[in-house]
Design brief:
alpha/beta
Length: 222
């Protein structure tokens, strides 16, 4: 998929990072997603040494958003008022569809083959879990959480009630035509007003005439 898509940026800010992440591919994919979803910064805590040469971030996110590589939890320095949210399969975690995203949040994921450390969990103010049957890839989990944040806080209009983008009941074209006729009556003197015509719009009549013409010609042939 290519091209730039305009998104509605919600108020506040967010960041995302991982503790003890060890695979370059996961790091690259996660930071690329962070860049795409508009994260304010990205961070790692006690990351594996081999991640210093990760080349899987094709969006070059490090050139556009700050990256903080903290050696330990004690080195973490979050902005004032920023809530640390752990993404973890815990009993006390809130399912993502029911989670209220903080206005200012930093989301942290655990390592590929483990969980957030007890020290990291103590730093978290809340926990969220993705309602899946088992753990998913760390980069995928981060992208899902970021998408949910943008979806719920991005001031997007509600989804249509049907797949064709209009209400399942009623006739939207007829309603638009009736509204247009009512507006025209307000501008036209009462003596010149005419009842609404039930004929289709001109463009539809012309289209229908073009379809009927070949059929009429075919019937007139000997």
């Amino acid at each position: 998929m290519s091209g730039n898509i305009t998104t509605t940026r919600p108020r506040g800010y967010f960041a995302i990072g991982a503790e003890r992440i060890s695979k370059p591919g996961n790091l690259g994919n996660l930071v690329r997603s962070a860049h795409a979803f508009g994260a304010s910064f990205f961070f790692t805590v006690d990351a594996h040494y081999r991640l210093r040469g990760a080349q899987s971030d094709t969006s070059k996110a490090g050139e556009h958003i700050p990256y903080y590589g903290w050696e330990s939890i004690d080195d973490m320095q979050m902005p004032g008022g920023c809530e640390l949210v752990g993404i973890e399969l815990l009993d006390e975690a809130v399912d993502l569809p029911s989670f209220h995203h903080p206005k200012r949040a930093a989301y942290v994921l655990g390592p590929e083959a483990g969980s957030l450390s007890p020290e990291m969990r103590d730093r978290c103010t809340s926990f969220v879990r993705i309602p899946t049957a088992f753990c998913v890839n760390i980069a995928m989990a981060g992208a899902i959480v970021m998408y949910d944040r943008i979806k719920t806080l991005g001031n997007y209009p509600p989804r249509p009630v049907s797949s064709i983008g209009m209400p399942e009941t009623g006739n939207a074209p007829d309603e638009a035509y009736a509204a247009s006729y009512a507006a025209s009556r307000m501008k036209t003197p009462a003596s010149e007003q005419r009842p609404p015509s039930h004929q289709p719009p001109r463009t539809q009549r012309e289209r229908a005439a073009r379809v009927r013409a070949p059929r009429s010609a075919a019937r007139e042939r000997p």
